[in-house]
Design goal:
Elements lengths: L2 H22 L3 E6 L5 H5 L3 H12 L3 E6 L2 H10 L4 E4 L1 H8 L3 E11 L1 E5 L13 E4 L5 H12 L9 E4 L4 H9 L4 E5 H10 L5 E5 L3 E10 L4 H12 L16 H9 L12 E2 L2 H9 L3 E4 L3 H6 L1 E2 L3 E2 L31 E4 L7 H11 L5 E4 L2 H7 L4 E2 L2
Parallel strand pairs: 1-2, 1-3, 6-7, 6-8, 11-16, 12-14, 12-15, 15-16
Antiparallel strand pairs: 3-10, 4-10, 5-8, 5-9, 13-17
Helix pairs in contact: 3-9, 4-5, 5-10
């Protein structure tokens, strides 16, 4: 073989070896997203120490970014922008829906309360009122949106939503009369209400929410690397300023946080919500399941006996959606004499919610809503057709 050829082959082999070695030691990225309300905890985190600790644990170089811009952190979870996310529960909850696994959280679970002036009777009575919240992507705002959502209200139904940095200031705004309601942690409310008895009252209480920082890692990382990172994060040294994320809340708690403001409400005023088993009974009595999904989805797989109602959805996925932006002409083809059960792709799908609401508003008398849709039907092992 020609010496020049041998020389090129040797250098080629060395280049491939170097490339493989570089890939084996590829750099990992992490982001620490800090709630404005946890600024003190955020300031105590030593980025260089955190990088050193994560790098040593994983055997790879880890670059750490810190941010207080929660909107940016949430966008990063949707695009898979980092290998490790450390932040408030809504950031972890979003990442867990998109290819990450839970390490744990740093504090026990909290409850959040929506509190209002004494004369406000219920969450529904907040329509046309003023609400104080921290920045839009804070956990307080997520809880507020969720509690309004469950009552069938949207931020659009309020007179104003004022976003500031610190939730405790919302309680001060209540005493000053510059807001009608705010959201705080149950512990904060207990302390404040003891000092100002009768100044406000609880209108709604959230489900448990993981407390402090939560940590998640990308599932695509090698299992050995994930294990080492999880072990280190669960027992993080105080020298980094990051509290250990060794507590393991129920995954359902993160699921509920992920649903807030994105999933349909749990009830629909004027329409009875039914389960898959209820639908079986209603079908036996002559009720008709109305599938509001796309024609392609309907033809591929559907609840047995369901009819398809062509529906063009353009309005926002919000309880205050504008029905004028959607096409509900197919409702007029349905038999008004029969009970109608509207269904789609589960709790995250708004089509059946909107169609059921519009049908009720148009005077249909026997309207039902199957929030769980086809996924719930499948989970119960009930018969389908199509395909």
């Amino acid at each position: 073989m020609h010496p020049g050829t041998i020389h090129r082959l040797v250098w080629g082999a060395l280049w491939i070896s170097a490339l493989a070695g570089g890939m084996a030691h590829a750099q990992l990225t992490a982001i620490v997203a800090v709630e404005p309300t946890e600024k003190k905890a955020g300031n105590s985190i030593l980025r260089s120490a955190l990088e050193a600790g994560l790098s040593k644990a994983s055997g790879q170089t880890v670059t750490v970014t810190t941010t207080e811009d929660l909107a940016d952190a949430m966008r990063a979870t949707r695009s898979g922008g980092y290998d490790i996310f450390i932040g408030p529960p809504q950031v972890a909850a979003s990442a867990l829906q998109r290819g990450y696994e839970l390490v744990g959280c740093s504090q026990k679970s909290d409850h959040y309360v929506l509190v209002g002036l004494p004369q406000i009777e219920s969450v529904g009575a907040l329509k046309g009122k003023r609400l104080y919240l921290p920045q839009q992507d804070s956990v307080y705002s997520y809880m507020g949106r969720g509690m309004l959502n469950e009552a069938g209200l949207s931020f659009k139904d309020l007179k104003s939503v004022r976003h500031e940095k610190y939730p405790q200031a919302g309680l001060s705004a209540l005493t000053l009369g510059t807001t009608d309601a705010t959201v705080v942690r149950a512990e904060e409310w207990a302390q404040w209400s003891a000092t100002f008895p009768g100044a406000a009252k609880v209108l709604a209480t959230s489900r448990p929410v993981p407390g402090g920082f939560s940590a998640v890692v990308r599932k695509e990382l090698p299992s050995e690397v994930r294990g080492k990172l999880s072990q280190w994060l669960s027992t993080a040294s105080s020298g980094t300023g990051l509290a250990p994320t060794g507590l393991r809340p129920e995954m359902q708690e993160y699921q509920k946080v992920a649903e807030l403001g994105l999933f349909t409400p749990t009830s629909l005023p004027g329409v009875k919500r039914v389960s898959a088993k209820d639908v079986v009974e209603l079908q036996g009595q002559g009720a008709v399941v109305v599938d509001t999904r796309t024609e392609k989805e309907y033809r591929a797989k559907r609840i047995r006996g369901a009819v398809w109602a062509a529906y063009g959805e353009k309005s926002l996925k919000d309880v205050a959606f504008n029905p004028e932006q959607d096409d509900f002409k197919a409702l007029e083809t349905l038999d008004r004499s029969k009970a109608l059960i509207f269904s789609c792709n589960g709790a995250e799908c708004w089509k059946s919610y909107k169609a059921a609401k519009v049908a009720a508003d148009k005077g249909f008398r026997n309207v039902y809503w199957m929030r769980g849709g086809l996924p719930e039907w499948d989970a119960e092992g009930l018969p389908t057709e199509g395909g």
